[in-house]
Design brief:
Blueprint (H helix, E strand, L loop, with lengths): L3 E6 L2 E6 L10 H13 L7 E6 L4 E3 L4 H4 L4 H19 L5 E5 L2 E3 L1 H7 L3 E5 L3 E3 L13 H9 L1 H10 L3 E2 H6 L5 E3 L1 H16 L3 H14 L4 H14 L4 H15 L13
Parallel strand pairs: 2-3, 3-5, 4-6, 5-7, 6-8, 7-10
Antiparallel strand pairs: 1-2, 8-9
Helix pairs in contact: 1-3, 3-4, 4-5, 5-6, 9-10
């Protein structure tokens, strides 16, 4: 669809931002295409998504500076809202989303990666929020998610200085979970996604919801959220068969089998 490719590999969906001539930069058309693809994902069949960029140089180099250069205040605000709405959709997507970051992840590229549940990157990855050097602030959630991920002090330093960091530094500060040689990045993302997809989908979805919502409230309120989601898993096929299989294994290891979770 336009600038977005989508393929399915078993229970894993792979979304590729495909605008390599512009280093996969985000403009309104790319954002619209991405939103349409997200809306079309069959979350009953797909249990984990991978988000990556086309080519070897860039995940997403940022928002399209040429398109932004002539925007009015109102247009800038509207563009920021569009990006934020779509990135919030990724963050709140029912199933986990893994960012496989190949190359540049600057500005909007860093921001879209931060809206994903898990970030892994190639050794050539470069991260940064360069906006203050362009006379603007991050506009797609950078001031909010970066501080939550790496701490306010580090986030302020990176944003105020507009300094880029490499994959090694991104791993050191906790911005990414792992670093791989470029040729191993997508296979590693697929392996991780398949592992997630092999677990009980109701439980995985509930865990994502509990973590995301719990981060916005006090620990007391968060535990109430967890209690409710914990309880919601019971009486499902996944819970009953998963626990029965555990008990079979405990009783006789020869009776153990791989559970085919049904999302029900």
């Amino acid at each position: 669809m336009g600038f977005i490719d989508y393929e399915v590999d078993g229970a894993v969906g792979i979304i590729t931002i495909n605008r390599p001539r512009a280093l996969n930069a985000l403009n309104e058309e790319v954002l619209n295409d991405l939103e349409q693809v997200l809306d079309a994902v069959d979350v009953d069949a797909i249990r984990c998504l991978i988000l990556t960029g086309a080519g070897e140089k860039s995940f997403v180099a940022g928002a399209d500076i040429g398109a932004m250069s002539t925007m009015t205040k109102a247009e800038g605000t509207a563009f920021g809202k569009k990006g934020n709405d779509i990135f919030l959709k990724i963050e709140k997507f029912p199933i986990p989303v893994i960012a496989a970051i190949n190359g540049f992840a600057l500005g909007g590229g860093c921001e879209i990666s931060m809206s994903c549940d898990i970030r892994i990157c190639a050794e050539n990855a470069i991260f940064g929020q360069p906006e203050v050097g362009l006379g603007i602030t991050p506009g797609f959630g950078g001031t909010q998610r970066l501080a939550r991920l790496v701490g306010a002090g580090m986030a302020k330093q990176l944003i105020y200085t507009a300094r880029n960091i490499d994959a090694k530094e991104a791993y050191r500060i906790g911005l990414v979970n792992a670093v791989y040689p470029l040729e191993e990045l997508l296979p590693a993302a697929k392996k991780l996604a398949a592992t997630i997809a092999g677990n009980a989908p109701i439980a995985v979805r509930a865990c994502k919801k509990a973590i995301n919502e719990g981060l916005q409230v006090s620990i007391d309120e968060g535990c109430v959220i967890e209690e409710e989601l914990f309880g919601s898993c019971f009486e499902s096929y996944d819970q009953q068969e998963g626990m029965a299989n555990f008990l079979r294994k405990k009783d006789d290891p020869k009776k153990v089998k791989k559970v085919a979770f049904k999302n029900a």
